[in-house]
Amino acid sequence: MDKPMSDFHFKFMCFLFKIRDCLFSRKKIIEEIRIKPKYKILDYGAGSGSYTIVAAEKLGGEGLVYALDIHPLSLEMITKKAAKKGIKNIKTILSDCKTGLNDNSLDIAFMHDIYHDLTEPNEILVELHRVLKPDGILSFNDHHIKGNKAVNELEKNGLFKLVRKSRKICLFAIVK
Asked: 170 pairs with which residues across the strands?
């Protein structure tokens, strides 16, 4: 399975994400997903927590965001950011694939800016399909994958189908 990047590489990536987030707010992307109160959300490959923090704020403490990452520094960083902002509706998961969550327990799963780094993306898609509710949504974006390749990649195994596409994200429903 995947291995965490070096601490130096991770910290450098987070520095670049900090610049990106200042220039291009993640709030606009989160708004496109149409999160509702009490939702349970998984941020798969949470990294620096850009999406995790914004989603948790959007939920306003009523729902829950799980931040999953393979890198321990990611989870430390997210925990510190959440504490600094007084956010209490984030739980962290250290894993390279399995979430440890119950079947059909999530309303939304984020797979943002991570797909290109995965060595076994199909295993992760199977896991996300398992934990999403029957009406759950997979929110996907990855600037490393151009054109319709992202849609083709996510639909090829028959687990997900595209329901909405914008300039920034693709939203997929699970196929039962």
From this structure: 140, 165
Among 82, 128, 89, 122, smallest CA distance to 108 is for: 128
State mean pLDDT over 117-136.
94
With 0-12 CB in 10 A as exposed, 13-18 as middle and 19+ as buried, what is 144? exposed
Residue carrying the six token digits 């039962």: 176
Q: Which residue stretches of 86-168 are H helix? A: 121-131, 149-155
Q: Is pTM, for the whole model, over 0.85?
A: yes
Structural domains in the chain? 7-174 (3.40.50.150)
**Spatial distance between the Cα atoms of 93 and 142, rounded to a whole number of angstroms:** 22
> Residue 77 corresponds to which tokens in the numbers above?
């960083």
Name 165's Cβ contacts closer than 8 Å, sequence gap at least 6.
151, 171
For residue 66, give Cα distances in angstroms to 15, 77, 80, 98, 111.
22, 14, 15, 13, 12
Q: What is the mean pLDDT of the chain?
A: 90
CB contact at 8 A, 43 and 65: yes
Closest among 170, 123, 125, 122 to 143, alpha carbons compared: 170
What is residue 39's three-state secondary structure? Answer: coil
